[in-house]
Amino acid sequence: MVTFLLIAAQTTTIVSVIVYASVRIEHRLTKVETEINWLKELVKNTNCSNESEGAK
C-alpha cells in the first residue's frame, strides 16, 4: 500500500512538472510569435515608407 502511494505521488509530480514545462514553452512561443508579427509589420511599414519616398 505504501509503495502504491509513493508511486502515485511520484507519477503526479512528474506529470505536474511536464504540464508546467509545456505551459511555459507555449507561453514563450506565443511571445516569440507576437514579436515576429510585430517585426513583420515594422518591416512592411518601413518598406511602404521607402517606396513612397522613392516615388516622389
Short description:
With 56 residues, this protein is mainly alpha-helical. The chain has one helix and no strands.
Q: What would you note in describing this structure?
A:
- By secondary structure, this protein is mostly helical.
- It has a domain at 28-56.
- It contains one helix and no strands.
- It is rod-shaped.
- The termini are far apart.
Comma- or semicolon-separated keywords:
95% helix; 56 residues; mainly alpha; 1 helix
H-E order? H
Assembly state (oligomeric): single chain
Structural class: mainly alpha
Q: How much strand content do the residues show? A: under 5%
Chain-wise SSE layout:
Elements: H1 2-54
